[in-house]
Amino acid sequence: MLKVVVIGSGNVAQHVIIAFKKAVGMELVQVFARDKNSLSHLLYTDVITSDYSQLITADLYIIAVSDYAIVDVSSRLQLADKLVVHTSGSVAMEALNDKNRKGVFYPLQTFSKNKDIDFNKVPICLEAQNTTDLELLKKVARTISENVYEIDSNQRKSLHVAAVFVSNFVNYMYQIGSEICTQNEVPFEILKPLIIETANKVMTLSPTEAQTGPAKRDDTQTINSHLNFLSDENQKEIYKLLTKSIIDNGKKL
Amino acid sequence: MLKVVVIGSGNVAQHVIIAFKKAVGMELVQVFARDKNSLSHLLYTDVITSDYSQLITADLYIIAVSDYAIVDVSSRLQLADKLVVHTSGSVAMEALNDKNRKGVFYPLQTFSKNKDIDFNKVPICLEAQNTTDLELLKKVARTISENVYEIDSNQRKSLHVAAVFVSNFVNYMYQIGSEICTQNEVPFEILKPLIIETANKVMTLSPTEAQTGPAKRDDTQTINSHLNFLSDENQKEIYKLLTKSIIDNGKKL
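ok -> structure tokens follow
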């Protein structure tokens, strides 16, 4: 049975821990958390340590901490020649401390507290310094997800940037939609089926095929009427830039 | 049985026709299409007319044509004091010709050819000049959807603008994500679970609660590394503006 230690207690760490607790074919033998209480709702305290010198032997150590803490945490591990991976989309594998074998175990998903995830569908992007370690990572990843990919650091960075567009920026578009609803006393509820359908469409159509709306049609009259309607300068500026981009993009095709 | 005539043969018209064909409690008695063949895959040709003088008597006439054609089509109808509605999000009810009673029957959804819709979930926003007509519109709308709303012209316009943000602009974010994947030889597939989860999150969390990512954390290092990574000026400009907006927005809260 593959033994895994998770280091971290934040958002990603917690979702990974929940996934591993359900997994068959691997064993979550220990979790490192600076504050043991932060995980008491998920784990018995005897598997949690907050002392680096107490880390036990395992096949894989997964550092699931903030990007800026990865270098520091990986240097503090009192381990040598173990397989140590981080879970970040944007940090290079090389950033991990040299005393251990390095890898990446990047679950490409948006994790929020108070929102369960079906981890089985979460793509896990793997990278390692050698084939043996990569195979071990694949084995562990496949115990929690059916979508496992081998992705190098540069590709992973591109995915991370793309994820900002299709998730963070998309969510911000939802927020502006919600603001416009509030400003006009319309329930945001009304937009929810549209939000779901817009996401569903690109499961089967390409985004280019799926594009609709006044910018796509270069419908100047509707665009101007929308710009007149918007009073918030920030909303207006975003509307203008994205409309112009969609129009220019249409002309390129 | 309520009798309905649909005027139009485009995208929206076709989805509405499909929905009405399945509906119980109303009867689609006729469809007007300039080119009868455009609907031959959906209807027997004997219910289609391309002659305004052949329009038959019905309780409701739904004009489902492009925004710019509504004024013209509604003036061509050889009818008087009938209930005539349009299906546009951005055209005022008053734009309809004065010889008939006016209303709006706006299905708030993104319609594409080659993509079926579960019409039962599509919000239908209704408006009419008097209560009797509004009740009739509600009856008809409820035969095809469980989400029926009474929305005045100004609110409808705000919904239409909000829909551009949560659907058209969102889809454009998907397109940029897809471009970045292509440029870096990563399958767009990997982003699909993230796209679905990002949409699902705002079904239960507010967009403000659901926001994640480097801009939300004001993580300058990751933001700069993303900007260095992007080589396309259009992508860069959008990344900058949306990141700045999310950061400024966080400071307002």
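The mean pLDDT of chain B is 95.
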